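step=encode ok
step=design start
structure_in=
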């Protein structure tokens, strides 16, 4: 540590659990965060300020006005410019701590790219908004042997669990053994139907960041028990004030960490996902490089049907009332205004190509 770092992290170094040695380890540590929403932005903010060495953030979405209530790294101008969340978050985090190696990737985590995007990191952090992606993260983490922290929030309520593959219960132990009731309303409800309080996300993100700090600053090979939450499902409801911490046993017959059947990792790329918080469908069945300026010019010629074309270097957005399409350079598209994959597919074929 140089003198600037000693000063910068002095209040954390003074804390007995960290000390200089713990801070040194954190400065050399790496983590990958999937999803830059309410949880993801709050976790990234805390860990970057704490002096994590390297952070990769993966997010497929762009900033909208309805995100600003809880996604603490974004500003009004990010929503006006429709910046991808990974890009806006990277810019903000660089301004917060230029010491940290920060990499924002505008990408969708799929079975095809999960191994490549997640391997080589010491910890995987959950900032996602759906269980399909979380089970993919769990498969990848167990397969690669990387600890990961599950976190989810909806309404006034959130849950988190630290997973150390081979040592503590994994997400499949929790969700696939008929123990659905343990994850409370989080599995069934979404931000779409139940909304979400920013404070609920803040509490769960803080627990997630504390767990990450414990794991990454710990001496190599050290067991961080009893303070770490590995194998414990922690939940908190900021409205009722109810707090719970339940021990989750490993399932010896677990599909993922027992039988090592990685169904989600081996699956085909997920065809269509209805996204949280919006009436929209994402299409990413084809990976094709698009020339966005050229597509913009073509759409402008066809202005009778496609209007209000806006573009930045990362994406192109236009309206086909009552729908709005956002197309990314990798060929991915988000169609707003429908929950019907068939409608989204037909709009894609008509304006982007079959
Ligand atoms: Zn398991």
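sequence_out=
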């Amino acid at each position: 540590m140089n003198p600037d770092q000693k000063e910068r992290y002095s209040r954390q170094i003074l804390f007995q659990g960290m000390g200089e040695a713990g801070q040194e380890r954190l400065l050399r540590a790496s983590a990958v965060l999937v999803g830059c929403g309410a949880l993801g932005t709050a976790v990234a903010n805390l860990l970057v300020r704490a002096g994590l060495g390297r952070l990769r953030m993966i997010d497929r979405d762009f900033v909208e006005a309805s995100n600003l209530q809880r996604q603490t790294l974004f500003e009004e101008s990010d929503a006006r410019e429709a910046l991808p969340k990974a890009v806006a978050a990277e810019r903000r985090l660089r301004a917060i701590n230029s010491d940290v190696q920060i990499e924002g990737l505008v990408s969708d985590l799929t079975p095809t790219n999960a191994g490549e995007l997640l391997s080589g990191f010491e910890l995987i952090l959950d900032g996602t908004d759906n269980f399909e992606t979380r089970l993919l993260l769990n498969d990848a983490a167990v397969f690669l042997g990387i600890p990961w922290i599950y976190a989810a929030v909806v309404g006034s309520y959130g849950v988190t669990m630290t997973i150390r593959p081979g040592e503590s219960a994994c997400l499949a132990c929790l969700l696939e053994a008929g123990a659905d009731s343990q994850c409370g309303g989080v599995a069934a409800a979404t931000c779409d139907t139940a909304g979400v309080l920013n404070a609920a996300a803040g509490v769960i993100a803080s627990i997630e960041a504390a767990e990450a700090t414990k794991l990454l600053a710990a001496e190599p090979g050290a067991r961080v028990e009893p303070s770490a939450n590995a194998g414990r499902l922690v939940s908190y409801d900021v409205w009722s004030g109810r707090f719970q911490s339940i021990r989750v046993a490993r399932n010896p017959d677990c599909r993922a960490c027992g039988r090592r059947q990685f169904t989600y990792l081996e699956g085909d790329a997920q065809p269509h996902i209805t996204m949280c918080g919006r009436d929209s469908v994402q299409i990413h069945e084809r990976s094709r490089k698009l020339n966005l300026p050229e597509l913009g010019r073509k759409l402008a010629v066809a202005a009778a049907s496609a209007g209000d074309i806006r573009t930045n270097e990362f994406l192109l957005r236009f309206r086909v009332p009552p729908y709005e399409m956002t197309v990314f350079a990798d060929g991915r598209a988000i169609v707003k205004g429908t929950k019907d994959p068939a409608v989204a597919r037909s709009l894609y074929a008509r304006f982007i190509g079959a």
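step=design ok
step=annotate ok -> The first strand starts at residue 30 and ends at 34.
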